[in-house]
Fold this sequence. Notes:
By secondary structure, the chain is an alpha/beta fold. Helix content is 52%, strand content 8%. It contains 25 helices and 8 strands. The protein has helices spanning 6-9, 22-34, 51-63, 77-84, 101-110, 133-144, 164-167, 180-194, 200-210, 214-227, 235-242, 247-258, 262-274, 279-298, 303-306, 310-320, 325-341, 348-360, 368-383, 405-422, 437-445, 447-451, 456-463, 495-509, 527-543; strands spanning 40-45, 90-94, 121-126, 150-156, 171-175, 466-468, 478-483, 514-519. The strands form 2 sheets. It has a 5-stranded parallel β-sheet with strand order 2-3-4-1-5, covered by helices on one side. The chain has a 3-stranded mixed β-sheet with strand order 6-7-8. 31% of the residues are buried.
Amino acid sequence: MGYTALYRKFRPSTFDEVKGQDHIVKTLKNQIRADRLGHAYLFCGTRGTGKTSAAKIFAKAVNCEHPVDGNPCNECAMCRAIAAGSSMNVIEIDAASNNGVDNIREIREEVAYSPTAGRYKVYIIDEVHMLSTGAFNALLKTLEEPPSYVIFILATTEAQKIPITILSRCQRYDFHRIGQETILARLQELMEVEQVEAEEKALYYIVRKGDGSLRDSLSLLDQCIAFYLGETLTYDRVLEVLGAVDTDVFSQLLRRILRGELTEAIRALEQLILQGRDLTQFVNDFTWYLRNLMLMKASDDMEDILDVSTENLMQLREEAAMVRSDTLMRYIRIFSELSNSIRYATNKRVQVEMALIKLCTPQAEKDEISLVERIRRLERMVEQGVRMPGARTGQDGENDSAYGAGAETAMTGAYDRAGAVNGNAGISPAALPGAVPEDLKKVCEMWKTIVNGTSGMFRVVLSSAVPKYNSQDENDRRLYVVFADFLAERYLNNAERKAELEQLIAERVGKQVEVKFVISQDEGLQRAALSKIDIDERVREQVHMDIDIVADDEEL
């Protein structure tokens, strides 16, 4: 006999060899031991989880002449005949190709004849959801009241397609996806039997590609062994055979995308194509990589869920700190949409390149997250002194844009002249007396003028900020600059910007004022006191007269 595929060669022959389905194995063994057999069973679950194998073992066990603890002995004449497929007591039917009413009528006629040997006739109908409506109706009566010597086992991967009238007549058993550790242990066991050397990392990747299916994992392993027959199966060789991409490539690609290096990202894709990598698999694997990053960013206790190696876990932690959650959500959305469309695309490379362009250039999209990403990139450009796109350049080479060097120089000059008039230009805040509440109130009144003394993105963010002070505590002499939203997060702990603003205030009012940056949703215990001042000042601007705030429990 020729070569036999691994998943056929190592098909379970007893219940004890069925992996990852202990809840089903125990129930079936107990029924066989106690002789409490049902007349109809429904085995449902994803592919490669042991449905058909369990059905055949069950058929052998109920007909076995010498069962051992609910398991077939695999030595008697009945067990050998069923294993060889020559027994008339076990009838396997593929419902995908035998789905008509006439096929079911044949079954109804056959069940009238008792088995010539053994105790039960077992009908195993695989992919039963493929039966037509007429075939299901023809099966109903026989399925409900079969002869005492007949057992039906229906197997399907799509239980939702089976009519409720069929479901109500069967004992349903759901086969779960098999755990990665269970499959890995099984593959390592089989590699010892087959005397094949394989790296654990290589087997682990095959297990992950199997997606909870032991049969799929064995088929992939068989393919890799055949390609490198007689050689050690390494991780790199598995990637080469399966057309997959190493996680290090995903890491480098993500970092280039975060830096907006579109040309380098396209070159990385070019290298993958030249190496013969499958683009559909690349899209799915990169989406999974982004998913791992999202989970790592969501919580620190994700090691068991992520199920990755220690070195990859360290890499994920590092990259999770480099990217924001909403940015990751945008990346995952773009690649999820790509994974749906790339299956039917005639030119997959163009589809992937378009997705990379979207990731590297947020201006290509107009959704809210993309707009926020564009703002963040503009902030970085301003902070780094990069010339704004589309800005006009003067004769002396200075940038005349709103946030360029020319505008910044003009504003700084105007500010220096104003400071000189006040006589406080260049004075260190530490050399000035501390501010009192009246001084803080004065700062709030001239806030717009103070903001005009700043430049760049800092000025833009300060323009939407609100200055406040604590009127309820005279000992609290700080000025709270309450930013409107998260765009100002980068300035919260920026000592340079804080000192710049304190210097501006000192030169304007001649007093030392301590500044504290906060975001509106993080005001904390000062919320009540500060919001009162805010209301007072805003109303005063509108009515142009003194305002007295009366407490709720005071009588008017």
